[in-house]
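Quick log. Single chain, no ligands specified.
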Amino acid sequence: MTKGVIRNDDVDQLIQAALSDHEVPYTVIKKGVTFYRVQPTERGRDSRHYNRSAKSRYGDRDETVGVCYVAGSGEAAAAETLQHGKSGPGNPVLQSEIESKSLHTLKTARKLKLVDAGLLAANSGYKLDAIVASKGQEAEGREAPGYMLSQALSAACMQLGDLDGIIYPSRVYPKTGGYAGCNLALFEGRKTQLALDSDIPLIDHEFSTGETIGEMLIRLKVQVE
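-> predicted structure:
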């Protein structure tokens, strides 16, 4: 590989080599564990949405397999969804955007078998920041732009039929210990992975920290208008 010119094929080769040369770093999450998702209230009460767009972090580059993102805590789910306003990075989160969303809780419907994205990236020669880099942002190490590595990891893992998805650390709410600072990227086409539990308007929810969504965003230095 030429330094500074990283292609999908280059990254794919590194990941395939890591899968061949090392034991696949699996994590198993037991049945009944609670996860969270924030989505527009108008979408309805079923939050098991598998997005086929290639624009998401672990999205399928061929846009044939959907990915459902959930977080290990309500705080992480909200922080991931409201990093910035709907208009894009650098824009404030509008109060109307907060009011239009609900926080959903789901429980794992069975044991889920997931690949630890951080360890797989390390086995491929990449540092953790490479899988949590923002879209288009270059990460340290081999200088692969954001989403290139994470989507390459996803593409390789989607080929493992007994695998439910990927577990990876939250970039915006990296709480250590347990699943609170982690996200799951679950692959479409597997046996039922999540069971619906409950939902509440995001603006009415009190987080485990005792904060409202507005207070939490202010603490995280997210501009709200």
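The first strand starts at residue 26 and ends at 29.
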